Amino acid sequence: MIRKESIRDIYGKELVKLAKNNSNIIVLDADLSTSTKTNYFEEEIPNRFFEMGIAEANMVSVAAGLSLNGFIPFVNTFSVFLTGRAYDQIRQGIAVPKLNVKLIGSSCGLSDFADGATHQSIEDIAIMRALPNMVVLVPVDSYELVKILYFSINYNGPVYIRLTRSLVPIITDENDPFSLGKMNVIAEGDDISIFACGVMVEKALESSNLLLRENISMKVINVSTIKPIDPNEVKKHITKKKYVITAEEHSIIGGLGSAILEALEDEPIILRRIGVNDIFGQSASNYDELMNFYNLSAKKIVNCARNFFQK
Amino acid sequence: MLNSNIIDYLDSKSKEVRLGILDTIGIDKRGHIGGSLSVADIITALYFYKANHDPKNPKKPDRDRIIMSKGHSVLAQYAALAISGYFSKSELKKAKELGALLQGHPEIRTPGIEANTGSLGQGLSIGVGFALAGKIKNLKYKVYVITGDGELAEGQIWEAVTTATFYKLDNLTIIVDHNKLQAIGPIKERYDLGNLKEKFKAFGCEVLEINGHDFKEIIQALDFPNSIYAKPRVIIADTIKGKGIKIAENNAQFHCNSLNKEEYEVAKKDILSY
Which domains does chain A have, with CATH numbers? Predict the structure, then answer.
């Protein structure tokens, strides 16, 4: 079995490393630092860590003020609260003036499986993607996360980074560079292209192996930049058969699937979106149980792929 | 320090600011007249008496920061910035036109504007960020945030005040333009916000109450050293919405309204004889 890592844990530790070399990095958290893992930062660099209380709207606007005075604020809370509770603050105070604020949405998707619909973000990508000036990133593993963090502190503008609470395997190569908007092929294939992000990349990879037994060849593309998306970057991964699947731990409305569909609007393709089917989440006793319930599984991808060939 | 020359100077500057507001609104164009006029004297005192700022170097690190959280009243700030020389006075007449330097609400594209505000309740939090940044960097600048009184209905204001007191931001001054009218009517009737002074005190602020059209009182309040308390300071400025233009005074209809040619001429005379 492949070793799995806590991406949020690596985030917390990496942020400390980056901040030791960059005195402009400052961290804000809204009473969730032991979950978002900014507690490492608080321990190591307490004078640049600010507890903002359970007041997300204020936290985001304060970050705007810090950014306007030369700091690079990292704003941390669960993705559902960051993009929901503080949406207007992000829009008005950060996205419109294109401020250099990094918004870290933790416990994304269904990964906070026990806490139910209130704590599960299925529309955060859609919300952030609709904002002009916003960059939306979903690291697939710790290698990519580290590169994304490095990118984000060298990029002057707002960035939303979606982080899962679950453990994730290493998918990418440590030497693969991260380049904004570039997609990387995780497995080659000729019949179908599957564009996936986050935890769904692993499931896409698993399904492509299963499909090989049925002589169906599926190319797996990891999409860590959800915005901006270059249509040509998407098109170059389309197979001759023009079968496309998208897979995300997010609503089928407005997320990766929508972004890929928009990018291919002038292409004669057949596209199927796999995601949370326009319903809210709920509590479950474990993450896999919840993911399977919402059809976010390799099995679902395999069935979807087979359907292209069953006329 | 406080002599009649300063008061006379500020009186004449406030007249210029009000004429600038009128210039910006123009004839038959809707604009936020009422709140811009109620805050005009406070803005005048900040830009022409109190604040350390330099129109030739709008981003100088030690400048005092002035944030109009009640963003719709930015017309007063635009006038003060134009008079100070941040941009040409001719920009005032072009405000809110397509591609204009001066937008309907404050944006950092305009020289001298520190933050995008206008979605009410957010400017104070941004100002808290400014004050916090000053503390971290050990810079001595002051932050002045102007809020409306109607704006204090926004819950985020009180989140921001909590941060300001918790982090002992004594470099922050919150000025409440207490004109007692929100867009639709009197605050007391529409949505009573209770005793503002007691509210701010309960949150841990140092509170001063002044007449927001009396330069002697404005100056005294601004000069009051709040650092001795290690607390943010709140100045509740009792003002008259529409102050300086008679038909607009205490008239909620002039929260955002237009002036026809005749009204415009009368308004100009009102300001000149103010």
Answer: 4-169 (3.40.50.970), 184-307 (3.40.50.920)
